[in-house]
Amino acid sequence: MKKKPCFLLAMLIALSLCGCGRQRAEASLSPDQILSAVLRSQSGLPELTRLTPQDGDFALFLTDDYGIDPAKVADGIIAYADGVEASEIVLLTLTDEGDASGVQTALMTYAQKRAGLFEGYAPVQAAMAGSAKATAGGEMVALLICSDAASAEQAFLNCLGGHTNSDTEQAAPDEPGTLEEAGKEAEKRERFDADAVLAAWHSGDTSALSEVNLQILNAAVAVIAQETADSMGDYEKELAIHDWLTHWSSFDMSAFSRAPGSGEGTDSDTPFGVLMGKSGNCWGYASTFQMLLRMLGIECITVYGTPRSSGVKHAWNMVRLDGEWYCVDAAWDDPIGGSPNHQYFNATSEDFRHSGIHHWDESAYPEATGTAYRYQ
Prior knowledge:
The chain is α+β, with helices and mostly antiparallel strands. The protein is 44% helix and 15% strand. It contains 13 helices and 11 strands. It has helices at 3-28, 31-40, 56-66, 100-118, 123-130, 149-159, 179-189, 194-203, 211-227, 234-248, 271-277, 282-295, 349-355, and strands at 49-51, 73-80, 88-94, 133-137, 140-145, 250-251, 279-280, 300-306, 314-321, 324-328, 359-360. The strands form 3 sheets. A 5-stranded antiparallel β-sheet has the order 1-2-3-5-4, with helices on both faces. Strands 10-9-8-11 form a 4-stranded antiparallel β-sheet, sandwiched between helices. Helix 11 (271-277) links the parallel strand 6 (250-251) and strand 7 (279-280). It is elongated and about 75 Å long.
């Protein structure tokens, strides 16, 4: 009988130590240590730049990129790849566990927007961002954009002792803005006067052109003289301009950069960036293609839409040949890391629908049904 109290006391002490030991293990793991565990679960990761709350850009990433109030974050680390790389690990320790669901949703919305940004230009990166994991455990929330998100998630949860928030689910992103807003923004961003350039082309009078528009016109005239001939038909001219554009220009990769202060070139959305700088975004490709075809007397318009309805704005063209419309996406025919092709040249609207990556306000544009001038 005398041994029983001692035995019970020993058991209570052991249980207490085990419990405290687990709590200490969880509490002692810093975001940096958890990041190391997550990184060990991956292979082939590119070099990652790391930001902590001590870095001035940390709060900017929270507000500008993730849409998260910095006051809700007590600690954390952001590790991201620059360039045409979607890899990104975000670990945030919140001041209030009750905010976990909202922060998780914000991070997942960001991941889907990243997927839309890469869509068409870098399919592997788009798929990685599209399969990202946003998970929460206690007051810590993680965004895992990497090649093996499932293993990364397991590594993260193992660091937290397997604890997850039972009432927190991976949330779907918010609905994107309207396509009408995309068109308005594109028009606002346009810095060259297409009508003035075309008028000068037809009249031969360049006296009213600004210096920028004069440079655009002169460069366009040189392209037309070099790449086309009067003996060509409209389809041949269209194909010549498409192939010149996809070989001449490169996509402005600064659009994908996560580095603080980075951003697209100021002229990447106009023919000036493409013609003079040999670089542009989807607006730059579309506006250059439209301008050159209109100079050649070929009816061409620009379509504003989104890839996978992600809210990331995109632009491509429609061309009318022999009374029938065709869809052309020169930017996506010039893939990053690949050779120019004709996958999106003179396709139908139905082709673009089935691609799963072109979405647009179909009531605002004609239906492309032409097949006679598909690329062979």
